[in-house]
Amino acid sequence: MIKRSDNLLVEPVARLIEEFGKLPGIGPKSASRLTFFLLRAQGEQAEALAQAIQALKAQVRLCARCFNITVDEFCLICSSPQRDQRTICVVEEPLDVLAIERTGAFRGLYHVLHGHIAPLEGVYREDLKIDQLLARVRSEPIDEVILATNPNTEGDATSYLLLKDLAPLGVRITRPGRGLPTGADLEWADPDTLGAALEGRREL
Of 83, 76, 156, nearest to 116 (Cα)? Predict the structure, then answer.
């Protein structure tokens, strides 16, 4: 929101600062810097940004199968015949898909919930793509569902709910191991991380 001390700003500048300030991670100073950068930029640069935003809203949609972002009916992962069709990795957001894909360690399919259970924030089961996940497990030849929600209170609560819903369907249900990052020293590890690392240990 524009402060009273900013009343010297002309309306278009004040409006853009306010809109930038609504974005996650953008405070008042960053919003002002972005606005004045665009004000000084060449007209083509500002126009390109405006067109990119318009294209984002006009062209990007959710995959009809996994609810990842796409410009077609199905995303590139769901459309690929080289992916393992029997394993689904459940994540909270499309950005989580990108993070896992960067590792190159997973070759199955995904299902994006678009959030996590958070009653205090007004997010409940019906707000997530949970029923769509259950429908996929019932109709597709799925052997394993990996619950890769975030390792925090909300993510754990969401995984627990999913576990209860998925258990009667007879699929294998797993959760990524939690442990120490590569190169970490034990003495600097927090107790929760170190405990999870020991609980998630594997045979050598």
Answer: 156
| CATH ID of 4-59, from 1.10.8.420, 3.40.50.1000, 3.40.309.10, 1.10.10.10 | 1.10.8.420
Cα 145 to Cα 143: distance, rounded to the nearest angstrom:
7
CA-to-CA distance for 146 and 162, rounded, in angstroms?
A: 10
Rounded average pLDDT over 83-103? 94
Of the chain, the percentage scoring pLDDT greater than 90 comes to 75
At 112 the three-state DSSP class reads strand
Identify how many contiguous H helices and E strands the chain contains and give both numbers.
8, 6
pLDDT of 2 > 50? The answer is: no
Sign of CA dihedral 4, 7, 12, 17: negative
Report pLDDT for 203.
57
Domain coordinates in residue numbering, the chain: 4-59, 83-198
How much is the pLDDT for 92? 95
Top-level CATH class of 83-198? alpha beta
- Tracing tokens 């974005």 back to the chain, one arrives at 23
Residue type, 99: A
The three-state (H, E, C) secondary structure of 12-40, written as one string? HHHHHHHHHHCCCCCCHHHHHHHHHHHHH
For residue 129, pLDDT over 70 is answered with: yes
